Amino acid sequence: xxxxxxxxxxxxxxxxxxxxxxVDPDTASLMYTVAILEEHYYKVTAIELATIALSMIEExxxxxxxxxxxxxxxxxxxxxxxxxxxxxxxxxxxLMSHKANVEIIIxxxxxxxxFCGENH
Length: 120
Hints:
Helices cover 35% and strands 27% of the residues. It is built from 4 helices and 7 strands; from the N terminus they run βββαβαβαβαβ. It has helices at residues 27-39, 50-59, 78-87, 102-110; strands spanning 3-6, 9-12, 19-23, 43-47, 66-70, 93-97, 115-118. Strand 6, helix 4 (102-110) and strand 7 (115-118) form a beta-alpha-beta unit. The N and C termini lie far apart (31 Å). Residues 19-120 form the Response regulatory domain. This is Response regulatory domain-containing protein. Keywords: Transcription, Transcription regulation, Two-component regulatory system. It holds the Pfam family Response_reg.
């Protein structure tokens, strides 16, 4: 299997081209995440507002393979966002938070997130 390696990150070549929508109200954090993903050949859509991201996912559901979202968004929390996404579709969701604790992580996983963790 071909892999691309950069600073302790190994990305299988089979993941290249994965279409990811990233949602984060913090512009700097959003752009940082996008830069890392694009460096590894992912196709990334960056959105600051959860409501706009939900509309885009609903309108173009088949265009996204993965959702990565900040838990603490302006219009809603990560649980509400997750519930809206998973209501009618089966798309993997990763929730990240600057203030993640064990209770939030466990609840997010129980409610359908494929991963929930702390970002810095």
